[in-house]
Amino acid sequence: MNHDRSRDLYDRALSVMPGGVNSSVRAAIEPYPFFVERGDGGHVIDADGNRYIDWVMGLGPLLYGHDLPQPVESAIQSRVSEGPMFGAPTEIEVEHAEFVTRHVPSVESIRFVNSGTEATVSACRLARAATGRDKIVVMQGGYHGAQETTLVEGEYDDVEPSSPGIPESFAEHTLAVPFNDEEAAHRVFEDHGEDIAAVMVEPILANMGIVTPVDGYHETLRDLTEDSGALLIFDEVITGFRIGGLQCAQGKFGIDPDITTFGKLIGGGFPVGAIGGRSELIEQFTPSGEVFQAGTFSGHPVTMAAGLESLRYAAEHDVHDHINDLGERLRTGLQEIVADQAPEYTVAGTEGIFKVLFTRDAPETFEGHCEGGCSQRPDCPRFEHCPKNAADVAAGQTDRWRRVFWEEMSEQGVFLAQNQYESQFVTHAHTDDDVEETLEAYKQAL
Ligand SMILES: *Cc1c(COP(=O)(O)O)cnc(C)c1O
């Protein structure tokens, strides 16, 4: 494949943008990323005219790939033609809020913002204000955007900011426990229960490999938070409207969090975030309450049209069924390849997300293992081997994944997420052929 134009563009970009990109992960590809010219269904075409099957899909916001259904495209275009935004409320915001509160069980009221980061920042502020407590419990390796409270590394109550520029004093209020570890969850509440404002957790770790919860884990978090007067925040920025269909992952797992953060799909491919929950909580935001929250672009009419019409279309068509079927087929095919060629690797994911994790040990038998990807079933022979938390994922062959495997897949025209940690997304635009071609490429590259 020729990448001359991408290389030239990256060269120019390096002179005027830090690392040549506007979001770090895009530069994880070495020596330089390809630049995208345009999308086409489930594919992207790069600046040199190379075509790839795209499983990155914007890293989460695209349910329909790169071709919007006609009603979605018309709704966006008609909003644009009416003027981009106003600084006054519009009907489309009300309609979108009504749609979300109708479909997501725990959400009675919602505030739209402009990114997932903004949503998690506001959710932490709200939880702290509502409880009068400062500490936020997060999962090690969980991702909640580029924000001060959650960018931490280290263990338990010995955490530090994971980036320069964040005062140590922020990290003093953050506690980090391993995902799927019930004992650690109990301990953090025994030690710090009275100071904990909230536990913030992705229902499925989707920015650190893909790690699904073991049976009962979220129930434990729900009970612990309830008993101690803390709040449970589900960060559904990735899982929202993707996992569990329109009721989101909380519906699938049967858990009612107090606060939910949204992003990605809820804006149909435009910049977005949202904080939802019970009215008595969400109404503590200004102007109905005291907790300051505001944004020039919040509830942007074009974003609202894109998000609402995308979700409406999904409500009226078999969008999630198509996505989940293809996802299942992809993961089942990957499991066969892995069993044959790299039995130590783990096929992770559920419904429309997937990843092959380059883990290092295999069970003795594959008989009776989870079909269609690791689902943390205790009697599966892989159970002890499937990653349970971020440290387990990070212990895999992450450099081989990024430096060797990614490149080989790319050469075969398959665009995978830029490192071992980011999820890959099946969309409504993907086809059986895309799945077959992708499986062939894995066969060659693994
Ligand atoms: C992407 C993501 C965020 C951050 O959202 P941005 O729109 O990138 O700021 C927060 N939480 C989770 C779970 C995410 O996947």
From TrEMBL:
Subcellular location: Cytoplasm
CDD domains associated with the record: OAT_like
UniProt xrefs under InterPro entries: 4pyrrol_synth_GluAld_NH2Trfase, Aminotrans_3, Aminotrans_3_PPA_site, PyrdxlP-dep_Trfase, PyrdxlP-dep_Trfase_major, PyrdxlP-dep_Trfase_small
Any single GO CC term annotated in Swiss-Prot or TrEMBL for this entry: cytoplasm
Pathway: Porphyrin-containing compound metabolism; protoporphyrin-IX biosynthesis; 5-aminolevulinate from L-glutamyl-tRNA(Glu): step 2/2
Cross-referenced SUPFAM superfamilies: PLP-dependent transferases
Main localization, broad class: cytoplasm
Cofactor names: pyridoxal 5'-phosphate
Keyword Phosphoprotein: no
This protein's UniProt keywords: Aminotransferase, Cytoplasm, Isomerase, Porphyrin biosynthesis, Pyridoxal phosphate, Transferase
Chain positions with N6-(pyridoxal phosphate)lysine modification: 264
MF-aspect GO terms: glutamate-1-semialdehyde 2,1-aminomutase activity; pyridoxal phosphate binding; transaminase activity
Catalytic activities: (S)-4-amino-5-oxopentanoate = 5-aminolevulinate
GO biological process: protoporphyrinogen IX biosynthetic process
Class of enzymatic activity (EC top level): isomerase
EC number in record: 5.4.3.8
Family affiliation: Belongs to the class-III pyridoxal-phosphate-dependent aminotransferase family. HemL subfamily.
Name of the protein: Glutamate-1-semialdehyde 2,1-aminomutase
Organism, as annotated: Halosimplex carlsbadense 2-9-1
Upper classification of the organism: Archaea, Methanobacteriati, Methanobacteriota, Stenosarchaea group, Halobacteria
